[in-house]
Amino acid sequence: MKIWLNGKIVPEKEAKVSVFDHGLLYGDGIFEAIRSYNGRLFKLKEHLERLYRSAKSIMLKVPLSSNELEEAIIKTLLSNNLLKDAYIRVVVTRGKGDLGLDPAKCPSPTVFIITSKIQLYPQELYEKGLALVTVATRRNDIEALNPAIKSLNYLNNILAKIEATNAGALEAIMLNRDGYVVECSADNIFIVKEKTLYAPPVSVGILEGITRNVIIGLAQSFKIPVKENLLTRYDLYNSDEVFLTGTAAEIIPVTRIDGRIIKDGKVGMFTKRLMTGFKKLVNQEGRKYAL
Ligand code: PXG
Predict the structure, then answer these.
(1) Catalytic residue at 150?
(2) Where are the alpha helices (DSSP H) in the chain?
(3) 250 lines ligand 1 (CB under 6 A)
(4) Hey, what CATH class is 125-282 in?
């Protein structure tokens, strides 16, 4: 595997960063996960815009322009012969500093791009649905580390994931301090109730998922009413359908939460329609970078 690291394509074995890199020492940095479908980088502009928003929030200057990052991503894909379908990770850390926290002592950010393949969940779960649990670990407070920032500091989500794993579930439903449902450890959540699609609003403390926004747009184009509302676990248990969205997971149905079966335990009609619509969309959207 070839990695893009600070402007150079290097073999994986040579893709090394310093133990003094603050991305490693403190989780001080940001990232994006992007997919390409059929030679097209899906929602690249939106992903890069979010990367720059995350960077701005933590006062990190990305040393490349958006066009330069796009070129670097394509170069990395080509170097790895991943011409059609890939999973791309773009990481920008604060860079090498000393052992103190001070980011002012880190003169140049570290940037790397990994391109690979990913299938987050086994295919059968896309047909049967996931069983989820709500975990005790609350999502970061907006006033502490805003979940809108896609930072390298994922310990909050990792703790949630560990709790889910301990309970035998593949993903965790997380609540905010007030007990409202926010999102999962690496996915956004939606419910369908009486033919309306509901999602927790960004203001409750979630990552504004690119896939989430695509699904909202798709639902609107299907004339499905969409509401961004506060949701409780009660709303989830008593919904007609539940599904998760994320770049890695795409759209995955949920059929069981905290031991409660959602409706009849089968993947619902709206979820199926959105899954089909999403599949169609990803193969059409965006500029094709390679044939
Ligand atoms: N919420 C959180 C907390 C996330 O980390 C999403 C929602 C979905 O966002 P997008 O923009 O991808 O629709 C994420 C996704 C993985 C993985 O491999 C995913 C994410 C981060 C790290 C790993 O599944 N982010």
Answers:
(1) yes
(2) 22-26, 44-57, 66-79, 123-128, 155-166, 210-221, 233-237, 269-282
(3) no
(4) alpha beta
